[in-house]
Design a protein that fits this description.
The chain is α/β, with parallel strands linked by helices. The chain folds into four domains: 2-162, 3-Layer(aba) Sandwich (Alpha-D-Glucose-1,6-Bisphosphate, Chain A, domain 3); 213-304, Alpha-D-Glucose-1,6-Bisphosphate, subunit A, domain 3 (Alpha-D-Glucose-1,6-Bisphosphate, Chain A, domain 3), CATH 3.40.120; 309-465, Alpha-D-Glucose-1,6-Bisphosphate, subunit A, domain 3 (Alpha-D-Glucose-1,6-Bisphosphate, Chain A, domain 3, 3-Layer(aba) Sandwich); 473-551, 2-Layer Sandwich (TATA-Binding Protein), CATH 3.30.310. Helices cover 41% and strands 18% of the residues. It has helices at residues 2-13, 37-53, 90-97, 102-115, 138-150, 165-177, 183-199, 222-230, 258-264, 308-327, 351-359, 371-378, 399-414, 421-435, 443-457, 461-465, 499-509, 537-551; strands at residues 29-32, 58-63, 72-78, 126-132, 155-162, 213-217, 238-242, 279-283, 290-294, 304-306, 341-345, 363-366, 383-387, 393-397, 473-478, 487-489, 494-497, 516-521, 528-533. The strands form five sheets. A five-stranded mixed beta sheet has the order 1-3-2-4-5, with helices on both faces. The protein has a five-stranded mixed beta sheet with strand order 7-6-8-9-10, with helices on both faces. The chain binds 2-acetamido-2-deoxy-6-O-phosphono-alpha-D-glucopyranose and zinc ion. 2-acetamido-2-deoxy-6-O-phosphono-alpha-D-glucopyranose binds at residues 26-27, 66, 369-372, 388, 390, 392, 522-525, 529.
Length: 552
């Protein structure tokens, strides 16, 4: 009875505006921030139910619209492992968000509780951690989420404040692992493991291209602000934050941020000719994407971008090198530590990156776009590295592999072998597993791992950028009447419906050397996206254009 009363009351407080239709897409619900409160409140109900279902494990709610304009907002739910909410709850999420009135909402919840066997009614049966980014609608929406959580009897909401998206995911994961999960615990883990990585840089090895100066475009979001907080404690790095979100510095994601830099391939707002030659990084508005770039000079308009594919390549090289140290110990025979290393990309990965990775003998697999698909695939390996070209990605280590590394480290140190290359390699992998956020892609922890590896290799930005040359590519959006008419298969690389479309794409692609092209319906916008790659920019443009024409 109390449960029914609470649900009816909260649904009455947040009526669904007419004409709103929410869909739990690749990144949760997203819309104009001012219209989001009902959907966010219902996401609160959903998160609490999810926690009850999972025996009271902590579940997360993040209120953000990532790289989208400042007026937008959104909400997504993190599962107890810190990853995205299990996909089989998404249909219920949609139904709940679109329930037209309080009675319909109550009916839906009660039916779902019955179908899923959710043990409602106890005390302290659910805990939900909430976080939000810096958007002006964030405070108001966080309150709506709190009210949604509190509508479930026995649920307990904890407001973690203004955070990056990956911080909240990390907190959820840590809390459920029984590790201390406050923001300062997060920072301590990052700062300490970064320092430890630098201690493990061999003296006098590698190149001398590394410079300490790093300029970071914070997208006027939360990531820049958090970096400001910790930069003084980052040893051997001089970090300058631009677009830090301070009053007067600019608007969130406007002409800046990782999405802007990666898509437009131009220097973000806030940089000047004085920055030419400096190593620069760009975060997105909620700091789960990271790209690097060099500021182009007036005389040379070429823009050097290091996207997610090249960050992935750097991580893969580093990890492979450590595994080689561990397994090929010169002429001293030792028990190898077998490790399955897997690389996960999407169809948007530049073809040159895939070729580079395969030339190293690495196993490369593809999934559809969206972190939930990549992350899940990466978990199938001892070490899985995944990145989207847009800069979202991370490295995940299996628990079994971490235990084996720890055991090997203990064995070597008890044999007084702590000076060996093998021991150092073990320590580097263990430290990297603590530095990188294993819950989800995290621009801050990713940036620190990049910086540690560049120091380790003694590499400049140009050394890194020169790993391979990207093939020219072009992306186009096409407005269509019904984007769901296009169905794809093979990790979005082929169209299965309408069948004639794939034949047309094949026909166009065959006209270009190194031509590659695919189309897919966007998961976040009402458009069909076209991606084309070829040996020259003119050809990539023309391939994209002719395929777009067939889509229209
Ligand atoms: C979302 C996804 C991102 C993906 C993008 C594709 C998460 C957390 N975010 O932002 O990974 O690249 O959607 O957008 O999964 P699209 O479907 O509109 O091309
Ligand atoms: Zn983001």
């Amino acid at each position: 009875q109390e449960q029914r009363r609470r649900l009816l009351a909260v649904a009455t407080r947040f009526p669904l505006p007419s004409g709103c239709r929410f869909s739990y897409g690749t990144a949760g619900f997203r819309a104009d921030g001012a219209t989001m409160a009902p959907a966010v409140c219902r996401a609160g109900i959903l998160a609490a139910l999810r926690s009850v279902k999972l025996a009271g494990a902590a579940v997360g709610i993040v209120i953000t619209a990532s790289h989208n304009p400042v007026g937008d907002n959104g909400v997504k739910i993190a599962d107890p492992d810190g990853g995205m909410m299990a996909q089989h709850w998404e249909p219920f999420a949609d139904a709940l968000a679109n329930a037209p009135d309080p009675d319909a909402l109550l009916h839906l919840v009660l039916q779902f509780v019955k179908d899923e066997n959710i043990p409602l009614g106890g005390q302290d049966t659910a805990q939900v951690l909430l976080g939000r980014d810096t958007r002006p609608t964030g405070g108001y929406l966080l309150d709506a989420a709190l009210q949604g959580v509190n509508a479930i009897v026995g649920a307990h909401a904890i407001n973690m404040g203004i955070l990056t998206t990956p911080q909240l995911h990390w907190m959820v994961r840590s809390k459920n692992k029984g590790i201390k999960a406050s923001e300062s615990d997060y920072f301590t883990q990052l700062i300490d493991s970064f320092r430890r990585m630098l201690e493990l840089v061999p003296k006098g090895k590698g190149g001398d291209g590394f410079t300490k100066k790093l300029i970071v475009d914070g997208a006027n979001g939360i990531g820049g602000a958090k970096l400001e907080q910790i930069k003084a404690e980052l040893s051997d790095l001089d970090v300058i934050v631009r677009n830090s979100g301070k009053e007067g510095e600019g608007v969130l994601n406007h002409m800046c941020g990782a999405d802007f830099v990666q898509k437009e391939r131009v220097t973000p707002h806030g940089f000047s000719p004085e920055d030419v030659g400096a190593r620069c990084a760009s975060l997105d508005g909620d700091a789960d994407r990271l790209v690097y770039f060099h500021v182009s000079s007036a005389s040379d308009s070429r823009f050097d971008l290091v996207d997610g594919d090249k960050i992935l390549s750097l991580f893969a090289l580093f990890i492979r090198e450590q595994l080689d140290f561990i397994n090929n110990n010169g002429d001293q025979p030792n028990k190898p530590l077998p490790a399955r290393l897997g690389i996960v990309q999407t169809a948007y990965a530049n073809g040159a990156s895939t070729r580079f990775l395969k030339s190293l003998g690495l196993e490369v697999v593809f999934t559809p776009t969206g972190v939930k698909y990549l992350h899940k695939k990466a978990l199938e390996y001892d070490i899985g590295i995944y990145f989207e070209a847009n800069g979202h990605g991370t490295v995940v280590f299996s628990e079994n592999f971490i235990s084996q590394l720890e055991a090997l480290g203990d064995e070597l140190s008890s044999n007084a072998d702590t000076g060996s290359a093998r021991y150092h390699a073990v320590m580097r992998l263990l430290t990297a597993s603590r530095l990188i956020n294993q819950a989800v892609g995290d621009a801050l922890s990713g940036l620190l791992l990049v910086e540690a590896i560049l120091q380790y290799k003694g590499w400049s930005f140009q050394n890194w950028c020169g790993l391979y040359s990207d093939l020219p590519s072009r992306q186009l959006k096409v407005k269509v009447v019904d984007r769901s008419a296009i169905v794809t298969t093979n990790a979005e690389t082929k169209v299965s419906q309408p069948t004639a479309l794939q034949e047309l794409i094949d026909m166009e692609t065959a006209n270009y050397a190194h031509g590659r092209c695919f189309v897919r319906p966007s998961g976040t916008e009402d458009v069909v996206r076209v991606y084309a790659e070829a040996s020259t920019q003119v050809e990539a443009d023309s391939l994209a254009k002719s395929v777009a024409h067939h889509v229209e």
